Amino acid sequence: MRTHTSIAGRRPSGRRHPLATVALITIGLLTTGGAYALLSTSATAESTAASQQSITEGQKVFAANCASCHGLSAMGTDKGPSLYGVGASSVDFQMGTGRMPLAFQGPQGAEKPLQFTQEQIDAVADYIASLAPGPAIPDEKWLKGDGDIALGGQLFRTNCAMCHNVAGAGGALTEGKFAPSLAGVEARHIYEAMETGPQNMPVFSDLNLSPQDKADIISFLKYQQEHSSVGGVDLGGLGPVAEGLFIWIFGLGAIVGVTIWITARPN
């Protein structure tokens, strides 16, 4: 008698085992993860090597140009403060605006032509940042000038105008110090100044002004500089004192001149 195998007990031909799919997914994940780990490790190694090279180069530039005031280990001397904890942001501002190295000892360092290339400045910034934690160079997303202009103007008038003037034109301080004009200053350096508080300027940390607040202030300043005054000649934006002085000298001077001319005419 012929025995037939039941259909229920026989697996249909061509159908994969249920565990085959799981095995394929596992193999795919292992392959992808291994490749990613390999690439990440390689990229990290290259980045670390590049950073170490930059730090080494920055240390050389620092030793040749900055150590005479700040000390070979950047711990500071009687001529210059310690740079531990100032961060890359402070270095980029001070060297990127030409304030450092100082031309001479005075009430404050003035902006002047750059003494170093941007590559050298970046290298010194990397070196100083490697000594101790500090503010980093700001992310480009805060420097685009696309923030809230109205809010930025309000924040600027509240926190900055008492020194820099409502138009950002700058102003005199005590003991020969001054708040510089903000016209033409790069957005990066404006952000860094708020973040690090150079010289007479207070530090506006993220607890005082958030990164978005700083971006809004930058947006206001850039808008103000790119759009002319709707009221005519703004006389440098120095306010009512400058306008009153202008009227007093030129307006009254013109009236006095005309009066003298009329009275001096023969009858």
From TrEMBL:
Enzyme Commission number(s) of this protein: 7.1.1.8
Which membrane topology term applies here?
Multi-pass membrane protein
**Where is it chiefly localized?**
membrane
Subcellular compartments: Cell membrane
User: What residues does the Cytochrome c domain cover?
Assistant: 53-132, 147-225
TM helices/strands, residue ranges: 245-264
Q: Which InterPro entries match?
A: bc1_cytC-su, Cyt_c-like_dom, Cyt_c-like_dom_sf, Cytochrome_c_Oxidase_Subunit
Q: Per the record, a Pfam family?
A: Cytochrome_CBB3
As its record notes, the protein acts as a catalyst of: a quinol + 2 Fe(III)-[cytochrome c](out) = a quinone + 2 Fe(II)-[cytochrome c](out) + 2 H(+)(out)
What are the UniProt keywords, alphabetically?
Cell membrane, Electron transport, Heme, Iron, Membrane, Metal-binding, Repeat, Respiratory chain, Translocase, Transmembrane, Transmembrane helix, Transport
Tell me which domain of life the UniProt entry assigns to the organism this sequence originates from: Bacteria
Self-association state and partner proteins as the record states? The cytochrome bc1 complex is composed of a cytochrome b (QcrB), the Rieske iron-sulfur protein (QcrA) and a diheme cytochrome c (QcrC) subunit.
Protein name in the entry: Cytochrome bc1 complex cytochrome c subunit
What species was this sequence derived from? Leifsonella bigeumensis
